[in-house]
Amino acid sequence: MSISDLLQQYASAPGIWDEMKCDAGIRDHYQKVFTALRHMDMPTIQQKEMLAGELFMNQGITFTVYSDNAGIERIFPFDIIPRIITGREWDTVEKGIQQRLKALNLFLKDIYNTQQIIHDGIIPAALIASCPHYTREVFGIQVPYDIYVHISGIDLIRGEDGRFYILEDNLRTPSGVSYMLENREVTKRIFPDMLSANQVRLVHNYPLLLHEILLQLSPTQLANPTVVLLTPGVFNSAYYEHTFLARQMGIPLVEGRDLVINNHKVFMKTTNGLAQVHVIYRRIDDEFLDPLAFKADSVLGVPGLLSAYRRGNVAIVNAVGNGVADDKAVYAYVPDMIRYYLNEEPILANVPTYQLSDPAAREYVFNNISSMVVKRTNQSGGYGMIMGNTVQEAEWEAARKTIEQEPRNFIAQPIIKLSTVPCLIDGRFQPRHVDLRPYALCGPNGIKIVPGGLTRVALREGSLVVNSSQGGGSKDTWIIDE
Questions:
Q1: Does pTM surpass 0.85?
Q2: Where does the sequence pass through the membrane (predicted)?
């Protein structure tokens, strides 16, 4: 069957925004790609699909799916048909993310210092006090350039109206950027001419930009400060990414046992003795960073690290304590933060959010559960979600009791029919739901956002869960100017 015939058979579900096809046919920004594909036959495209899989396997691009009882690493699923977003649409996304990160950085500085936003009644004090990731141990610590969020992976979804909405902020240790970069490298191998023909914006300089920012954060003015990437180790689900980024930036990859604290300074063990470390790009959660300050039984962190951090002898990226701004109950207040700190209206809207600690909101959600998704306020990766349109009655009754016992730990949002894009599945083009995780870097010279980001795909038909940890896949994201 020809590619033209397969495209004719492509049918998106009614009431869902399909990013490739509208009532009038293929959207303009997808035309060049599918014109090129029409010159290929299906065996050629399937051969390219096989080549992509081999490239991922040879590179060892893996992700651990913890929900799998075996807990084994899998090759990261990749769909070869790119997702395409116009430059005009992207410019709005970029401005919206920059605005949001400015407000979130100001919020984190405020909440760990004067807490003016609480005193002015914008955010309830009880909400912050009850947040398990509000880290009192870092209250009053001054961070370089007042930047708390150096790296973010803000999750966006596209609704039925075609507009982008912010779903999550991911301000602690966001993952996935290596997959974005590898997706582009694989696409270069299988569709080299299509990238140049469409003038796709580049993403390859992310490691360079990140390295520049890390160097600028050194607490002492040195020509060559020492920067390290701190990993939990080989058993972490994103260990491939840790090794990839360390290699791309040319910095040491270390574990907690490779670092020691001496006179409130951090040193790395080397074959030539101890070398002082000035900046740590950590991929370890707060509670495991320092067993003297947090979890006493942690073997992943460095005893005394927080003391060195408090004295300004080492910069930690992202800052310790960012989890308070990642709380899904706090997420609902980000539009208010933008108005409060910046005196601006949000460029990108939140998904409507119901705080289940509010009795009226809880009653409304319970009465309309079939159109709601319920989430734990401090879970990520797709864990702890209840999809109201598929939940079994017994499961919902058990969840309802838990919510009533600890309502602060839950929020609810209307189920959004995520936009769809074409994917090559079983030899046919089929629509699958997607989200988008653009990566933003905040440094002394401003906020820079990689054009595109990681598109995550719900590979199962009809599924809205795109998380890699739940078995989702990804595809290359092209930003093109029409």
A1: yes
A2: none
